[in-house]
Design goal:
The chain is of the alpha/beta class. It has 15 helices and 13 strands. Strands 3-2-1-4-5-6-7 form a seven-stranded parallel beta sheet, with helices on both faces. The chain has a six-stranded parallel beta sheet with strand order 10-9-8-11-12-13, sandwiched between helices. It starts with a strand and ends in a 10-residue tail after the last helix.
Length: 368
């Protein structure tokens, strides 16, 4: 008898793909076959997935971007993707289908509904995304990464936390080195959306710090490719040691090495910051329609682990002041790191696996 199959469907941002990767890693260890359903955009994030995961690119489309023609074509592309997904599931029937949000998860979830397969969704943010709103009442369980999560009436959520990749778990609760003249490392992370404001503000803010403090800084800054040259030049002009990249494939190490993280408050980043335990300055994405990034930041801010700086308040002088207050106060920075750790859920993947098990007949759960 072949091992049971789980289909994991996720959209094309790290916020969706990283928790999907964590689940894929866990299910492979338990002896399952794992198939990832995503689109070409999501496939950019599959480099960290185990080689045993079967990657299937599906026809997907969004109603949120593109011109009128693209939006008119979107339903037909999604339907074509759902038909193809249904055909594949009839050929190799999954034991369960789980969606992590994003439009590329729609075809697999639609196919699961049509075939009456066990299915659930995982919402990383404190507010349901569009796709998860659509399916919340059409699945057997809704797993929530941020709590509380705003849910439709009559829908019950299960607070399990946001699964983090094995590389993050390896750094869980890594000892925190307080800032000092020997080490003042800053990690600047913009996520897959909206990093430009960080590139506009952070170099200018750090350049405004007193020279003795500025001389102790080492910065790792994630910037869009089109911003790379100007961000690098800005740090160089201020004589600040900085490494600027479009993507850090060693982000877990950089989180662990950081005395301070300046970042968007995407759900996966909040999970990484809290599982490793680092002080942070959080800048929610103002363009987010549902303001989910403010909801994501709430627990860390209320715990005293982070400072919240909405975009209108995120100016070079304000950021310089906040940064100096943290990096020149080792006791406060250490307290913030401890508070961040108190909000972490390193067992989120295990909780999600247990929820999956609860939806399956015992015969579908492999014994390994």
């Amino acid at each position: 008898m072949s091992a049971p199959l789980i289909v994991i469907a996720a959209g094309g941002t790290g916020g969706h793909m990283f928790p999907a990767q964590a689940l894929a890693e866990a299910m492979l260890v338990r002896g399952w076959r794992v198939q990832l359903s995503t689109d070409a955009r999501g496939a950019r994030y599959t480099g960290g997935f185990p080689g045993a995961v079967e990657i299937r690119q599906v026809q997907a489309a969004t109603f949120a971007r593109g011109g009128l023609l693209a939006r008119l074509v979107a339903p037909f592309r999604i339907l074509a993707g759902a038909v193809a997904a249904r055909r594949a599931m009839l050929s190799d029937r999954p034991a369960i289908v789980i969606g992590f949000g994003g439009y590329p998860s729609v075809p697999a979830l639609l196919a699961a509904v049509m075939l009456k397969l066990p299915r659930l969704i995982h919402e990383q943010n404190g507010v349901l995304g569009r796709v998860n709103q659509l399916f919340a009442s059409r699945v057997h369980a809704v797993a929530c990464g941020t709590w509380p999560t705003e849910l439709p009436g009559g829908v019950q959520g299960h607070h399990i936390g946001n699964p983090v990749r094995a590389a993050i778990l390896e750094r869980a609760a890594a000892p925190y080195t307080p800032p000092s003249d020997r080490a003042r490392n800053i990690l600047v992370m913009g996520g897959s959306q909206g990093a430009r404001i960080l590139s506009d503000v952070v170099p200018a803010a750090l350049a405004a710090l007193p020279e003795p403090l500025r001389a102790t800084l080492t910065v790792s800054h994630q910037a869009r490719a089109e911003d790379h040259a100007r961000v690098t030049a800005a740090y160089g002009a201020a004589a600040i040691r900085a490494e600027v990249r479009a993507f850090f494939d060693d982000a877990p190490r950089r989180f662990a090495d950081a005395q301070l993280v300046i970042t968007r408050s995407g759900a996966s980043t909040m999970a990484d910051v809290s599982v490793i335990g680092r002080p942070s300055i959080l800048v929610p994405l103002a363009a987010a329609i549902r303001d989910e990034q403010t909801a994501n930041a709430r627990a860390l801010v209320e715990a005293g682990a982070a400072l919240l700086m909405p975009e209108p308040q995120f100016t070079p002088p304000a950021l310089a002041k906040a940064t100096a207050q943290i990096l020149t106060d080792p006791a406060r920075a250490t307290e913030m790191a401890t508070a961040a750790l108190s909000q972490g859920r390193p067992d989120a993947t295990d909780r999600l696996v247990s929820l999956i098990d609860s939806l399956l007949p015992p015969r579908n759960v492999p014994h390994v």
